[in-house]
Amino acid sequence: LKNGAFDFIPKPFATDHLIAGARRALEMRRLVLDNRRLRAAAEETVGAEPLIGETPVMVRLRETMRQIAQADIDVLVEGETGTGKELVAVLLHRWSNRRSRPFVAVNCAALPEAVAEIELFGHDGDSRLPRTGRIEASNRGTLFLDEIESTLPAFQAKLLRVLEEREVMPVGGDLPRALDLRVIAAAKPGLDHAVEEGRFRADLLFRLDAVRLRIPPLRERRDDIPLLFGHLLHQAAERFGREVPTIDTATLAYLGQHDWPGNVRELDNLAKRLVLRVEAEEPIDEDSDIPLPARVDKFEEATIRAVLQQVSGDVRSALAALGIPRKTFYDKLKRHDIDVEAYRPTKSPPSS
Length: 352
Fold this sequence. Notes:
The protein has helices at 15-45, 56-69, 85-94, 113-121, 134-137, 153-165, 191-196, 202-208, 225-240, 249-257, 263-276, 292-310, 315-322, 326-336; strands spanning 75-78, 103-107, 142-146, 167-168, 177-178, 182-187, 211-214. With 352 residues, it is an alpha/beta fold. It has 2 domains: 21-46 and 221-342, no CATH class; 56-217, 3-Layer(aba) Sandwich (Rossmann fold). A hairpin with an 8-residue loop joins strand 4 and strand 5. The longest helix is centred in the first third of the chain and has 31 residues, at 15-45. The termini are far apart.
């Protein structure tokens, strides 16, 4: 054992003890390999582009961003909460010719209505209260308007003039001030619907929608989750001065089966909790209101799916990792409606 053996079974040994020990060793070996893969993923992303993902949709997104970054054109970024809309805006600015100029971010939903106009457009009517607005502060740089869908109609009308005329009129001012800026706006999905309902100006949407970038939610790019999670673990460990933790089976299953409504932000929170070893309800206790048998079934299904994902649908490897007989395995597949073929690589058609 001191030299690295997993277990020791003295002779004469019972066959069932030998089989059980071998199964435990295989499961431990699988966990070790999974954790090595996560650590390798973290190392691969050090110094890499922060918009991580190798699925086709993410590769296309980065390619499109590279293509339009140098073009001085306004952009609309669409994505759910936590997908990284501000990160996309920052990268577009960083990759553009304006990179050495200001990047001014404005969360439209967080601006108090009473001071929003002065905060954005500035104040020039009283010598005691001169103030440069956020829009003018972004001159020669990039203005990022987050949650643009939350703006009021009066603000939308003034913003439209800024976009069309490239000038801003401070509150109380007599003359507009010329601007040279790029505008990147971000919104949650449904901006077109807001136009139909009259909550958002159609002409403003048309002006912003010269190029629209859609950031996919995590549930649409599950193959990116191990790579991204490895990066976030490494990032959290470096930030808090801790070691990158070992990931257990329950967490691996959770990573593969959770829908991630909070997207990258939620995944990042999980990484931080694991690094800090903070007890949380996820991943096992998130359904405390569900009866125990249902929770056991849910965990069993998630574990089987996670193992099948890891072994690319190979039944023999899955049986070894799960430590259950073949008949039991197939019974559970049927009960949970799991199709093994869905986890196997798609074979290319033979060449003629």
